[in-house]
């Protein structure tokens, strides 16, 4: 028999003691998704003070070896599935590399310090695990997007719209930015609007902006070219962002109010993911032995551009405070790829793809004209960024999906509520 094949096709793996109490077979079983059956009395498993090994392993008394077959046969199918799933969570989050083992050790030591926040067992034993649940963000589990389903909580109401202005064309009632602000103010879920002005042009006076009514609007800018905001500032955890949901927009995004409201409703059902409209895809290019990036319409996607997307504000905190300096430096030097990096970050945390929602048929990604995104070098640069990011992460976190959620069918009775989002359904609206 081939050992690796046999291991990966086994449901239970016997792990007797080695020369001492422990055995390398334990980690082999975890990696293979095989439920370890431990035969080593008094063995203290790794990180046992934080990890609940009863959710992933079976104990048997090494003095009663013949009882093992009866023990494993008595385990129900649902319990077997839960145990195998947990082996993968623990292996992936804490044991799959020397780096993770070291960082897990540091985190356990850090929690013993007097003033450092303490994470409960749910955080340690639920994906994405303690290494990606930064306690300095919040001391309440319900503030983290991936723990909401586990705790039976819903995300907080309403969203903060963050518009990143890099070109800064003249503001008139016919420009995309003006129309975008108007569409946002009509949304029933918007809490406030945040304008991040990263253009060399002067900020328009307040009277040139459309009236936002009771919706607060804040403008954050750099006054000179020396302190011009980095393109990563769009993902900075600004103090004005108090809602769980963040709507990230480019200045030339063309979205109406129905599109905003529908995407927000979808995001509330998937608060741990990026939910939005323009999608892209990655692929492996054998001819170049490298990752490729494409904007062609295909049956699948793996990236939802943050020029028109919702995500949880926790990812702003991770992007700014947790990501490797090398990743942020790559974005800063290229003034590009920040949206790709955010997608890699969210997929790395959740191990899930983003979600694309269906826009109206007259939708186009961007207006023509003097846009840096129309530059051919921009596309080549994004492919280069993608490969740099994958190299720093150590693998490719992006996952493919062919799911597209349509407002006609999503949570609606088609016969009664077919026209709930009329602005999206009308052709050329």
UniProtKB/TrEMBL annotation:
Q: Where is the Exostosin GT47 domain?
A: 3-75
Q: Which UniProt keywords apply?
A: Disulfide bond, Endoplasmic reticulum, Glycoprotein, Glycosyltransferase, Membrane, Signal-anchor, Transferase, Transmembrane, Transmembrane helix
* Molecular function per GO: glycosyltransferase activity
- Membrane-crossing ranges are none
The UniProt similarity line reads:
Belongs to the glycosyltransferase 47 family.
**Pfam families, from UniProt?**
Exostosin_GT47, Glyco_transf_64
Protein name per its UniProtKB record: Glycosyl transferase 64 domain-containing protein
Residues of the Glycosyl transferase domain: 160-410
InterPro entries listed in its UniProt record: Exostosin, Exostosin_GT47, GT64_dom, Nucleotide-diphossugar_trans
Coiled-coil region list: none
Q: In which pathway does it act?
A: Protein modification; protein glycosylation
Origin: domain of life: Eukaryota
**Major localization class:** endoplasmic reticulum
Q: What's a GO biological-process term for it?
A: heparan sulfate proteoglycan biosynthetic process
């Amino acid at each position: 028999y081939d050992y690796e094949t046999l291991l990966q096709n086994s449901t239970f793996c016997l792990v007797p003691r080695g020369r001492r109490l422990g055995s390398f077979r334990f980690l082999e079983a975890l990696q293979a998704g095989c439920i370890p059956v431990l035969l080593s009395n008094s063995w203290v498993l790794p990180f046992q003070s934080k990890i609940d090994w009863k959710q992933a392993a079976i104990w048997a008394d090494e003095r009663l070896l013949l009882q093992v077959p009866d023990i494993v046969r008595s385990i129900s199918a649902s319990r077997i599935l839960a145990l195998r799933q947990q082996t993968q969570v623990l292996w992936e989050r804490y044991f799959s590399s020397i780096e993770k083992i070291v960082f897990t050790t540091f985190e356990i030591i850090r929690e013993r310090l007097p003033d450092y926040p303490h994470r409960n067992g749910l955080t340690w034993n639920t994906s994405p695990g303690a290494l990606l649940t930064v306690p300095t963000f919040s001391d309440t589990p319900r503030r983290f997007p991936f723990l909401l389903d586990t705790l039976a909580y819903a995300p907080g109401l309403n969203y903060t719209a963050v518009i990143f202005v890099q070109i800064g064309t003249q503001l008139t009632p016919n420009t995309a930015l003006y129309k975008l602000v108007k569409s946002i103010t009509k949304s029933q879920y918007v809490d406030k609007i945040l304008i991040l002005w990263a253009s060399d042009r002067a900020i328009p006076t307040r009277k040139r902006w459309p009236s936002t009514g009771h919706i607060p609007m804040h403008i954050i800018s750099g006054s000179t070219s020396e302190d011009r905001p980095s393109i990563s500032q769009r993902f900075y955890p600004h103090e004005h962002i108090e809602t769980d949901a963040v709507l990230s927009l480019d200045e030339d995004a063309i979205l109406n109010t129905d599109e905003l409201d529908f995407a927000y409703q979808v995001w509330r059902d998937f608060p741990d993911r990026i939910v939005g409209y323009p999608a892209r895809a990655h692929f492996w290019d054998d001819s170049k032995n490298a990752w490729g990036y494409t904007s062609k319409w295909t049956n699948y996607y793996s990236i939802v551009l943050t020029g028109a997307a919702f995500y949880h504000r926790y990812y702003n905190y991770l992007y700014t405070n947790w990501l490797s300096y090398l990743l942020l430096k790559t974005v800063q030097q290229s003034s590009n790829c920040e949206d790709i990096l955010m997608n890699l970050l969210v997929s790395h945390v959740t191990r899930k793809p983003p979600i694309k929602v269906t826009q109206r048929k007259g939708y186009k990604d961007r207006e023509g004209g003097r846009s840096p995104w129309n530059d051919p070098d921009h596309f080549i640069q994004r492919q280069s960024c993608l490969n740099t990011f994958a190299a720093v992460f150590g693998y490719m976190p992006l996952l493919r999906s062919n799911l597209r959620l349509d407002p006609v069918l999503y949570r609606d009775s088609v016969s009664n509520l077919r026209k709930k989002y009329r602005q999206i359904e009308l052709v050329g609206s």
